[in-house]
Specification:
The chain contains 13 helices and eleven strands. By secondary structure, the protein is α/β, with parallel strands linked by helices. The strands form two sheets. It has a six-stranded mixed β-sheet with strand order 8-7-9-6-5-10, with helices on both faces. It has a five-stranded parallel β-sheet with strand order 3-2-1-4-11, sandwiched between helices. The two termini are about 20 Å apart.
Length: about 325
């Protein structure tokens, strides 16, 4: 196991949290859940038909006897859940519409978190990121003072850890959204033992190029520096100026970040998604995420191509954000 996870396991064993898995009969989820339960790291709630979940667990020889399995079709608190969702949606959806949505595991699991039955949620092994994010935005909503959800990836290679955002949520973020995602990504980095040195990336370094995205990243940098004077943050920086000391100190002399960055903010999802996958596939980094940021409770998304080990690690990451 990578070094980053040992302190998370110790922290969670000392103060166990409850995680909801929305796909309770998926073998990858069942394998990860059995490991978490065996280690005493997390309490587990599985959403699904009890007989199907138990049959799938038996087929894989996974022990989930300590998990709570909740079936939306016969949940005693279902009517209360529907009423709560109707109130939360403030006239945007009828009781009938809320009932239909809450029969789906993504909405049902999210409401379990909203109503305090669990602390966090991990889903998406069989459905899209949008189907994880939509109920979270509608029901959990953003933290006070935050207007947008963003994401970051934690990438690890040996003892080296870096953070990259936003690589999965906002297609073409506004300056305001860049400011929020920069601050949130720096906080996420800290949770995972990274002392953030944040570079807002561009094809320009300190005015060497012109364009709207250059202005966006430069202006966002100034606003983050003003909002968080103790945070080491600089921009706009080209990637080589962000990571290579000889380039960074030449192009941005005296910067605390240029040449030494470990937390990277991309101008849009194109750059971010391509960037983290280059690091993963050519740079040999393990990528964990997307970690959703800005919500009132930790809700995270799995890749549909994930394996049980990735589910296990994403569960630790999700619970550590509480």
């Amino acid at each position: 196991m990578a070094d980053m996870f040992a302190p998370l396991v110790a922290q969670l064993k000392a103060n166990p949290k409850t995680i909801v898995f929305t796909e309770g009969n998926d073998p990858r989820i069942l394998e990860a859940a059995s490991k978490l339960l065996a280690e005493g790291v997390l309490k587990v709630v599985m959403v699904g038909n009890e007989a199907e979940c138990k049959a799938a667990a038996a087929a894989g020889n996974f022990d989930i006897s300590a998990a709570e399995i909740i079936d939306p079709e016969n949940y005693a608190g279902f009517d209360e859940m529907v009423n709560t969702m109707v109130e939360l949606r403030k006239g945007k959806q009828t009781a009938e519409e809320c009932t239909a949505l809450l029969k789906k595991s993504n909405y049902f699991g999210t409401m379990l978190v909203k109503m305090g039955k669990a602390d966090c949620l991990l889903g998406g092994a069989t459905y899209s990121t949008a189907d994880t994010v939509r109920p979270a935005l509608q029901l959990i909503k953003c933290k006070p003072g935050i207007k947008s959800v963003s994401s970051c990836f934690i990438l690890m290679r040996g003892d080296e850890s870096i953070a990259m955002g936003d690589c999965a949520i906002n297609i073409d973020p506004t300056e305001d959204e860049i400011v929020e995602s920069t601050i949130e990504t720096a906080h996420t980095a800290e949770v995972f033992g990274i002392d953030p040195r944040v570079a807002l990336l561009s094809y320009s370094t300190k005015g060497s190029g012109k364009g709207e995205t250059v202005d966006k990243m430069r202006n966002a940098t100034l606003r983050v520096q003003e909002a968080c004077p103790d945070l080491k943050v600089d921009g706009e920086l080209q990637f080589d100026a962000a990571v290579a000391p000889e380039v960074g100190q030449l192009k941005a002399p005296g910067s605390k970040v240029a040449g030494y960055a470990n937390t990277f903010i991309f101008p849009n999802i194109n750059a971010g998604n391509i960037g983290y996958k280059i690091a993963q596939r050519l740079g040999g980094f393990e990528a964990y995420g997307p970690i959703l940021q800005g919500l009132n409770a930790p809700i995270n998304d799995l890749s549909r191509g994930c394996n049980a080990e990735e589910v296990y690690k994403m569960a630790l990451i999700t619970a550590a954000l509480i």
